[in-house]
Design brief:
Strand content: 25-35%
Shape: globular
Strand order of the largest sheet: 1-2-3-13-4-14-18-16-17
Distance between the termini: 32 Å
Order of helices and strands: HHEEEEEEEEEHEEEHEHHEEEHEHEEEH
Structural class: alpha/beta
Radius of gyration: 22 Å
Number of helices: 9
Largest sheet: 9 strands, mixed
Number of strands: 20
Bound molecules: zinc ion
Helix content: 25-40%
Length: 431
């Protein structure tokens, strides 16, 4: 195949992922877009507050807080257990505080924001930002919410000029309260952003009873590298894995297991919310669907013992300028396939058994795999695997796709890896 042809195929293959991430500025939007994928694939939407009717051979999904979603497909025969994958819908960003407008010297309006998750602060400076989230209002059925997205370059967090801080390039400590407030307009701009959001939601600003609003980077995902080896974009962690999970779920018919794809909100702030991985959401869904299939309590426990969870959250790739930050041997490379994460103190849930199962899935799918471990003197992050198993205890592997600059406003990953993950998850769901 010619390089030109190869590149055209690559762009085509990546288009659905790019479209999803570009249009998912917040966890609410990500879950709405995953819902569209599921609707198009004929999944039936269930409501947590209504009784369910779950039948063999059918497919369903349910949201919680409109920011987490669990989709599942039931095989035509009574299931033996659950084949599950989990990812997260949220990314580090800035949340607007209540009544966020601050006037500066009667000449600017800026916004009072706070950190959501652990981002690299400097990457949010000097780039056009927008505002998205949800507005809550009093509807006919009580409180209702509507998604909003200004989708326009409305805010900037400006650096201080180097002339005012000559030590700038020796490293700056950014204060999230004083250094990170975005300017959104002149003194005349007071109230304008809220009016614009309300108008988009089809209401007046005084009708807004509540708001979860966030700053986001409007940069689009793109292919990067002289040989098109990489992709770059905002929120790759973890929308890449969330997309791959749903893409595989809608593609594969379940055989002997209920296939489940769970995308949780609030991983970046510890997962401890009602819709996070540490909530009862997954447990509630599995118990309810089992009850509807007349599976009794003991059978349900047998099923859990015969289940497997792939927790997919991006992993640190070997950094070109800082290879010393990586473990001596277990140092993932972008485009070298699925990363199986290990941690001696079990912050990653992987053990010998679950690693072996994952390797077997990769081998059967014909995709590459590699391993990650922190340097022994670096604490590293945590993820979904061991948190969700605290609620639903099943054999779990923590995996991810190798990426650079995790929690930057603009991250870089391998162009081939998301395809590998979809292939591996299809094999998993098919088996
Ligand atoms: Zn993540």
């Amino acid at each position: 195949m010619s390089l030109k042809m190869k590149n055209r195929n690559l762009e085509e293959d990546l288009q659905p992922l790019f479209h999803f991430i570009d249009n998912s500025p917040t966890a609410y939007h990500a879950v709405a877009n995953l819902g569209k994928m599921l609707d198009e694939a004929g999944f039936e939407k269930l409501e947590e507050k209504k009784k369910w009717d779950v039948r063999l051979g059918e497919k369903y999904y349910v949201n919680r807080n409109d920011s987490s979603v669990i989709a599942f497909t039931v095989p035509a025969q009574m299931p033996r257990g659950f084949h599950m994958m989990a990812a997260h819908s949220d990314s580090p960003c800035f949340k607007l505080k209540e009544a966020p407008e601050i006037a500066v010297d009667d000449c600017y309006i800026k916004l009072n924001v706070e950190k959501y998750g652990g981002m690299i602060l400097s990457t949010w400076l000097d780039r056009p930002l927008s505002i998205a989230g949800r507005l809550v209002f009093r509807g006919k059925q009580g409180m209702e919410s509507r998604l909003v997205n200004l989708d326009k370059d409305v805010a900037m967090i400006p650096n201080v000029a180097i002339h005012m801080n000559r030590d700038m390039n020796k490293g700056v400590e950014y204060n999230p309260q004083t250094d990170m407030e975005p300017i959104i307009g002149s003194a005349d701009a007071k109230g304008v952003y809220l009016k614009a959001l309300a108008e988009q939601a089809g209401m007046a600003d005084y009708e807004i009873m509540g708001a979860d609003l966030f700053l986001y980077n409007r940069d689009k995902c793109r292919i990067v590298g002289i040989d098109n080896a990489f992709i770059a974009g905002p929120r790759l962690d973890d929308l890449e894995c969330a997309f791959a999970g749903m893409a595989a779920l809608v593609k594969e018919e379940p055989k002997e297991y209920v296939n489940v794809c769970a995308v949780f909100d609030n991983e970046e702030v510890g997962s401890g919310t009602k819709q996070g991985a540490d909530s009862t959401f997954l447990k509630d869904v599995l118990e309810r669907l089992s009850g509807k299939l007349s599976i009794d309590a003991e059978e349900y426990r047998c099923m859990l013992a015969d289940s497997f969870l792939i927790s997919a959250d991006n992993a640190h790739a070997l950094h070109p300028n800082h290879p010393e930050k990586a473990d001596t041997v277990n140092r993932p490379i972008m485009n070298n396939g699925i990363v199986i994460k290990h941690h001696g103190s079990q912050r990653y849930a992987t053990d010998a058994v679950s690693a072996a199962v994952m390797k077997d899935i990769c081998l059967r799918a014909g995709v590459l795999y590699q391993t990650y471990a922190n340097r022994s003197d670096i604490a590293g992050g945590s993820t979904l695997g061991n948190i969700s198993t605290a609620q639903v205890s099943v054999n779990t592997v923590d995996i991810g796709l190798a990426q650079l600059a995790m929690h930057s406003a603009f991250e870089t990953a391998g162009a081939a890896d998301v395809g590998y993950l979809i292939k591996a998850l299809c094999t998993f769901y098919r088996s």
